[in-house]
Specification:
The chain is α/β, with parallel strands linked by helices and 166 residues long. The protein has four helices and seven strands; from the N terminus they run αβαββαβαβββ. A seven-stranded mixed beta sheet has the order 3-2-1-4-5-7-6, covered by helices on one side. Helix 1 runs parallel beside helix 2 and helix 3 runs parallel beside helix 4. It is globular and about 45 Å long.
Length: 166
């Protein structure tokens, strides 16, 4: 598979996985019976495309963690919701404040499997600490120590990973 085809497959998996998670947390704010209470966490702003999708389809507060703010001007999160710095520190601060997250989208990575895997392994317990009971994590990396579940049938289980907080 070419890198371009792999990129398309990743984007399709992202969209399907994010939409699936929004639907499965009760969508638009937790007011629905059975909805999972909490905010959304976007880990890795990049150009802001995923953040833009989240704010279009999920009517919840969206926290964003990234080292730098370098997204498209139309995708800049509110200052109060953008946590700039190392993810470890930002997650610890969120946990100390008692922030509860219903859905985390994890998109950190540089494309080097060993490096990306080590970072996800290090961050997984810190992510778990801010997750609401039954909250969902949609990740492009495996998250050791989290309970893996099946995601949408349109997503190859080796392309994106889905977890539920116990």
């Amino acid at each position: 598979m070419s890198r371009l085809e792999s990129f398309r497959r990743r984007l399709n998996a992202q969209i399907d996985g994010i939409n699936w998670a929004i639907e499965n947390i009760g969508g638009t704010g937790g007011e629905n019976t059975g909805a999972i209470q909490g905010d959304i966490l976007e880990m890795g702003l990049g150009n802001g495309r995923t953040y833009d999708h989240l704010r279009e389809y999920a009517n919840r507060r969206i926290w964003v963690i990234d080292r730098v703010l370098q997204c498209h001007p139309s995708c800049v999160p509110p200052k109060a919701d953008f946590l700039q710095g190392e993810a470890d520190d930002m997650l610890v601060q969120m946990a100390q404040r008692g922030t509860q997250v219903a859905f985390t989208h994890y998109e950190f990575g540089i494309g080097v499997n060993d490096v990306d895997s080590a970072e996800a392994t290090r961050l997984a317990p810190l992510i778990k600490a801010v997750m609401a009971p039954q909250g969902l994590v949609v990740s492009q990396q495996k998250m050791p120590g989290m309970t893996q579940i099946d995601g949408p049938p349109t997503v190859d289980p080796d392309r994106y990973f889905f977890y539920r907080n116990a």
